[in-house]
Specification:
alpha/beta, 7-stranded parallel β-sheet, 40% helix
Amino acid sequence: MEISSLCMLGGTGFVGRAIADQATDRGIRVRVLTRGVARARALTVLPTIEVMEGDPSDEKTLERAFDGMDAAVNLVGVIHPSRGQSFADVHGELPRRAVRACRASGVQHFVHVSALGAGEDAPSEYLRSKAAGEAAVRAASVPWTILRPSVIFGEEDRFLNLFASLADLFPVIPLAAANARFQPVWVEDVARCCMAALGDPRAFGATYDLCGPRAYTLSELVRLVAATIGKRRRVVALPGPLARMQAFVLEHLPGRLMTRDNLRSMSVDNVCTGRPPAICAFEPASVEAVIPEYLGPAAREARYARYRAGR
């Protein structure tokens, strides 16, 4: 199936921007639905991008956004719930409304980006809500594909960049869930898999787990990031009670670096059990190969030069 147009929900995030770049390179017309046009400013330089302002939780708005589109991609997700955005609403109900809107608007393929580890009996509310969204998509009457990435890293991620900031500031890093295992996948590889699946009948009704080539413990990732920015840091693994106390404190501080629900998510390994999906047809990039490009000394100096120039 030839895809010439697609609508993205959650397209202003760093995964959405990677997909938009690759879709533009293929000449695909991309419509991005967002609550605030200002969020999509970085995308407007792309030649095939259309930004539509609206509430993605409203089904009629979704139908208008999907009108005339061949495919739709849902990237909407939250790490921490808020008063206006519960896990159930964002991860469960929004996909349900989206697939109904796809059917009403004639969308031919719906790609839903979920999370590795999603399950009805998962230990965290985050992962259980992701499973509810997957169930809603699987019940849809339009062709669908579900992508389940491990933690996604890239230049604008909120994962490895956070540890880089902490390693910059503190000689000792107390770490909850230090032995939690992840298999990080590069944002560009997630985008490539999404583009490979779009319109491909082999991907209809399929669920793909997406991971990088290697699994790491959280403490290994923190040390790797610290070494990349030229710092030697001591990582102190916190035992269970102290880890829960740390999560409780951080949960109530501005910025919410971690919550108790995040900690529960990390109680199960976030790794893949097999090779990358055949439909992706490439070998994923490693953390070691990519992060020097945006965390290494040369990259950081270039960033500081842009700041000094007021860019």
